[in-house]
Description:
Lysozyme-like_dom_sf, chitinase activity, Glyco_hydro_19_cat, Glycoside hydrolase family 19 catalytic domain-containing protein
Amino acid sequence: MTAQSPKPSCHSVIIGARSPSSSDQAAGRVPGYGVTTNISNGGVECGKGRNPEVEDRIGFYKRYCGMLGISYGNNLDCYNQRPFGNGVLVNSM
């Protein structure tokens, strides 16, 4: 619920109350579920290409959205997003 600089709160991203800044857009941090992964675990999982942890999380998210009968939207992964507070994008693809 609470932002922890330099990261926004997951809540503000989920409800659409936050628009990405120009630096967010340049870092690939566009609205979608992938940004919430970046907020919670970006330094470990994001900006490194595909990985099983992110794929599993996306699968669970899609499953729960299906159970609730809601759309899961676009931009589900953070494979090509720079983590918040990190100026370097590492891509192992």
